[in-house]
Amino acid sequence: NTITKIKNPIYAAADIGLKLVELLKKKQEKTKFVFGIGLSTSKCYMGTIGSNEKRSWKSIGPALPRGLVMSQLSILLETPLLMDEDCESTLSETEFQRRLADQVYLKDQGSVRVYQLVSKVVQKNDEWIYELRNKESSSWCSSYNDAVEALKHEKLSEAAQHIESFLDKNKEDFLGKNLSSLIENLYQSSLSFDEYLEQRIPTCLSMGSSYKSLLCQSESSQSLE
């Protein structure tokens, strides 16, 4: 088998992930089902191993179990496409829109933030399907992102106003309700936004006991055939 070398695999994975979200959402209109897509990146070993009698193609690296955890976390967080910090830091904000989802603990990385990949920013001569949705996606999560930015600068009142504005239009958004609850708790706490995210990880009030058992999977085998 020939393996095609991709110039920017993380960009390609993000692009394909967003297209899968569009496809699966259309299928949900006819059949009820739940899905979650996870993106993770790391160095890994890839290739064929074995003997003349039996050979198999394998990929070995931490991105594999992380990607699985991201996909299952995306279901718990009710967001279709979730990515880890390494992916988020690699993708340019001028190319892809994202929003902070939560902070989690992974055995091989420690405390990390995870992000919802929202949409692809339209570039000149880009695919028309993104052009139709980009403007709506951009305005959809702008108030949410403004709330997060205000929290980073410890502006609680401003953050509360932004998230209230977001929830007025997106009453059932899980991440929005979660962030609103976090802001309420910060009013009663002496911790900063970053400190609060760190200390709440062990209990994970927003996701319950299923969250702890899920993260244990990051210790599982890092090999994929």
Please give a structural write-up.
This protein is α+β, with helices and mostly antiparallel strands and 225 residues long. 48% of the residues lie in helices and 19% in strands. The protein has 9 helices and 7 strands; from the N terminus they run H-E-E-E-H-E-H-E-E-H-H-H-H-H-H-E. The strands form 2 sheets. It has a 4-stranded mixed beta sheet. A 3-stranded antiparallel beta sheet has the order 2-3-7, with helices on one face. A hairpin with a 3-residue loop joins strand 5 and strand 6 (110-120). The longest helix is centred in the N-terminal third of the chain and has 20 residues, at 9-28. The model is unreliable at 202-225 (pLDDT under 50).
Q: What is the count of helical runs?
A: 9
Q: What is the rounded distance between the termini? A: 14 Å
> Helicity, in percent?
40-55%
Give, in spatial order, the strands making up the sheet with the most strands. 1-4-6-5
Estimate the global geometry from the Cα principal axes. globular
Rg, Å, rounded = 19 Å
The poorly predicted ranges are 202-225
The count of β-strands is 7
Mean pLDDT: 80
Q: Could you describe the largest sheet, including whether it forms a barrel? A: 4 strands, mixed
What is the helix/strand order?
HEEEHEHEEHHHHHHE
**By helix and strand content, what is the structural category?**
alpha+beta
Give the strand content: 15-25%
